[in-house]
Design goal:
The chain is an alpha/beta fold and 388 residues long. Helix content is 56%, strand content 14%. The chain has a 7-stranded mixed sheet, sandwiched between helices. β4, α13 (264-274) and β5 form a beta-alpha-beta unit. α3 (52-74) packs antiparallel against α4 (84-98) and α6 crosses α18 (356-374). The two termini are 40 Å apart. The relative contact order is 0.12.
Amino acid sequence: MASTGNEYQATGTLLKTLSILMLATGFYSHSSPLIAIGCGYWLAAANPWRYRIMINVGIILHLLGFVRALYCLVSADLSVSHIDLLVSPLVLTVLIKYYPTQYDVLSNVLAYILPTGWMVSGIEAYPALFKKLSDNGIIGSVEGLYINSDAYNILQEEGFLGFTPADEILETARKAGVQSGKTLLDVGCGLGGPACLLAAEFGLNVTGVDLLEWNVTAASTLAASRGVSDKCRFRQANALSLPFEDGNFDYVFAMDAWCHIPDRDKLLGECHRILKQEGTILFHDWIMNKGDSEGFRFIYAFPPLETVDSYSEKLRRAGFEVVCAQLRTEAFRMHTARVRNNLISRKRRMIDTCGRELYDNWDAALLYAIRMIKEERLTSGVFIARKK
């Protein structure tokens, strides 16, 4: 989803209205802070994504101004105008309740004020409190995680959502014995990068399904730009109820997608059903290694994650013979660190394209993942299995 359009034109109009209100009240009450906030809102109206930082500052200043005016009222200090008692609550209500953003405003303000490491430590130590305060949290939903696909194309290879680079995907496909001319279903195809890669490299006929419509649209566009539209088709579908006949595909594939799906027994059962006899399932996924973290799962919108052993057992229960079930911890650590380095080095491009709020969100999310990997609680696994 692009970060422009009617939704953000409406945001610009809202900010201009607030700017006029701030400037008018500022000049009336001789309040330099209100005049400064008004000028900031007017500038932010030109590009609400890029100048979200000014909106966050405005929220903080409105809150401080209200507390100061309230204190003056209680202390009967009549030398200070109490216009903030009326204006600041009104503006705070508008910004927090009605500002059209995909993310929770309070978490945006916290992410802006606090160093990233503090933010991560706070979520890790007090996940329940953070969820209560921030509603949807930093990411908080699959939609929030993938709301702006431009971010992924800035951070890594075009069309990739997960944390597995192209060469590792090809290595897994070769290990699984993928052959030219066969059919493959990508369950949770995202932006379509891996599907287009496999179609081009192996001459596969690939069908990709994803729960989010904008991912399907982006994947179709990518396939056209890569010249593989004749081999790649994408459609919106639920992974727990795949719209295909039994025994329809030679391969089922996924890349860092199934960590978002709660009922993996049902998912693997569906994969088994639509595979041909002796068909192959191959996938990478985020898994837990040594202990869970409620805060980490919250920030990434994850249900409880699997382990190597639990995934292997679920595959067997679904009717598969496990060929490969192994960790890729070091490769996962290196690639996650590389993605965060890309985020930092491309900060200005990220903010210009996707907004300050998304930059802050990804900074916290990636640092949290790196911390979990270093503590050996989070890793990635590669799985290959055959349908019996």
